[in-house]
Amino acid sequence: MLLSLVADELMSNAFSATTMDWSAKQHEYMQRAIEVAEKGRGQVRPNPLVGCILVKDGEVIAEGWHDHLGGLHAEQMAIHDAEEKGHNTNGATAYVTLEPCNHFGRTPPCTEALLWAGISKVVIAHGDPNPIVRGIGISVLENAGIDVETGLLEESAATQMREFLHWCENRRPYVTVKVAVDVNGSVDDLSKDAGRFTSEDCLKEVHRLRKDCCAILVGANTVIRDNPSLTVRLIETEKQPLRIVIDPNNKIKSNSKVLNDGHKTKHLTDDFRGLEAMLDMLGDLEIQRLLVEGGPSTITKFLDQGLVDEFILVQSNITHESPKLSSFDLTGFTKSVETVWGEEKVTIYTR
Which of 61, 70, 67 is nearest to 36 (CA)? Predict the structure, then answer.
């Protein structure tokens, strides 16, 4: 506990030490670093999205991002990019969205790469709350004589890395609920067999959402009625999310797709101990974002226990003949974004 408190203070001091008047060009460079970081979305968890831009003599000479788990980190890729383009990195400034690491993991420390490349200045958007970093990367760079400035576009970087930051702070996944309703708020048409009622373009957006999540959760009734695959199929992905089925009475059929298609599924049966215990377990597995795609009963349980961080409401323009109406208590949420997925209107609520 003492080491953790010391590390917290170190990171706090590192990020309170500089209050800068940033230039328009500096904003432009860091914004570009945030943009290139997006190229790793859905491919790097449990690592965060990170981007890096190298600038020398007022010109961007290289870009890098964390592209896939086990691959080069953003700083390392940017240095490699500069070398391939024939640029000398000695004396360059690095704009990085996250504090560089100083430990050996799947790759060597990024601080070493920056020192080796002769980087003279590092501008950092956001500190790394990971207990094995937390300000240490900044201290190592400063002790080596590198000028370090922090906090440029910090909020934008935090938004981009929200699930990673949430997991570091709470050791639980960020919980996103996605539910589709008809024009009157019905979640199902009881006059028909189970099936999708949203457009193909909307479904593609749902698959993009799935790709950005570490795990997808439904209840037993969804599996029994829909027999879903709960996989990413309409967009390219190298890794499928973990499927989780809450089934305390062991009701789903043994030939259900989620139990037989070769992808990983956690089937929570008689040893299910409740949602909070489950989220703790998923946090231990480094699940940073959980997508709840279950029926209204499952969704309501998450809402009633205050466990939902984001609620995505997809509204179709069709009308169910035999509607199953359902209302969700979104007290405590603020309407943050209205958008369109295919033919459907989408409202995204966050706490």
Answer: 67
All residues at 6 or more sequence positions from 337 whose CB lies less than 8 Å from its CB, including other chains:
346, 347, 348
The amino acid present at 22, given as its one-letter code, is W
pLDDT band of residue 105 (cuts 50, 70, 90) is low
Q: What is the pLDDT of residues 27-36, one digit of tens each?
A: 999 999 999 9
Active-site residues, by number, are 75
The separation between the first and the last C-alpha atoms of the chain, rounded to the nearest angstrom, is 29
Let me know: does 216 contact 241? Beta carbons within 8 Å.
Answer: yes
Q: Would you state the structure tokens that stand for residue 322, as one six-digit string?
A: 């035999």
Side-chain half-sphere exposure of 170, counting CA atoms within 13 A: 20
* Residue matched to tokens 């405590």: 332
0.90 exceeded by pTM: no
Chain centroid offset of residue 144 CA: 33
Beta-strand ranges (E) seen in 224-302 are 242-246, 265-268, 289-292
